[in-house]
Structure formats: structure tokens, C-alpha cells
Amino acid sequence: QVQLQESGPGLVKPSQTLSLTCTVSGGSISSAGFYWSWIRQHPGKGLEWIGYIYHSGSTYYNPSLKSRITISGDTSKNQFSLKLNSVTAADTAVYYCARIIDGTAAVGLWGQGTLVTVSS
Amino acid sequence: QSALTQPPSASGSPGQSVTISCTGTSSDVGAYNLVSWYQQHPGKAPKFVIYEVSKRPSGVPDRFSGSKSGNTASLTVSGLQAEDEADYYCCSYAGGNTLVFGGGTKLTVL
Hints:
The complex is a heterodimer of chains A (about 120) and B (about 110). Chain A has no helices and 11 strands.
């Protein structure tokens, strides 16, 4: 079955760029029918949608984060990535990569999540 | 784009039913039948239990049900079991290819 796995540094310094990659196994990010998404959860808090990329390469971002985010896909590696620049302590969170079912807005599959701490 | 409003906590005894509300606006919950609900146990990734307001994914017990009225969606868990104790989040399509989550509700099985 399809599985998602996040990878990237667990510690990022303030003002630097947070970079995470999600490796998809058991399925292709090029397949129609899904959006590939990033969602985060601040410690002890709720979920926040960050953005997603469609199989066509189109990207859509949370308006509150849009100026700092880039989501991209690499079909040759079957991966998609998140870059969040100018990070502060407020960006400390567990970051999940996820798959959204087209037409339903439902997050049908989640990675295990990775904690990213922003600290000097 | 503001987070959807959920009660911070809910509780019920084993075998009882509990309903969790999720209030949005006419731009998100009220505008689309694209509300989903997620169950999250401590230290685990969320798992979807309801999508498109009232549909259950394969494998989710029929004790979980969803509904919507106006700008408020609801998740009902019937026949509460100990394993249902978890955090629950709602999520809605909010137009313009954006999503918005609720703040989450901690469900305690007494």
C-alpha cells in the first residue's frame, strides 16, 4: 500500500530555511486523483494546513504562509518537498506530509510526522 | 481564513454517544459538503474517520457518523469504547483550493 515518509533536519536556526522531503512508496505522485500536501501541528496544538501540489505540478498554499512557502515535486524520485523560509520559533511543529483525495478535500493518508525545532 | 471552532473537550461513558461540533462560516463549512473528521491518538498521525460530511472510509466502524447543518458540522460517536479516547479534528474546504482545520476536541471516555 502507499506509504509516506518525511525526512529532513530536526533543528533549524531562526531566519534560516526549513526544508523537508516526503518520499512516496507504493504509488506515484504523478498519478491523477490526489493532491500531495504538507500539514503541521504545533506542540500540543491543532492542525494547520500548509499547502499542496497536484500531480500536474500546480501548487496551492495557505494564505497566511504563502509568502514564505514553496512546495515542489520530483517525479523521478517520487518525492515532494517543502521549503519554509525566514523561520522563527513559531514554526516549531510536527510536520506531516499527506495525500488528499481529489474532489473530497479529505486527507486520506498521512506520514508519521517529523518534529522540526527552530532554535539557535 | 480562521480556524474552525470546536469545543476543547467532550466526554462520555462507555456505550454512550457523544457529539462534537465544528462551526465555520458560509465560506467554508456552510458552502461545501467537503467536511472531514480526523482521529488522533497521542504521539500518532491523524487518521480520517469521516469525509464529505457523512461518508465513512473503509474500515471505520459505523459507530462514527457525521452530519452538517448550516455552518456547523458534527461528528457523533455512538457506543463509546475506550479506544475512541483521542483528539478529534474537523477540516473543511474553504474555497480557492484551500483547507482549514478546527482547533481540535479531546474526547475522554469516562
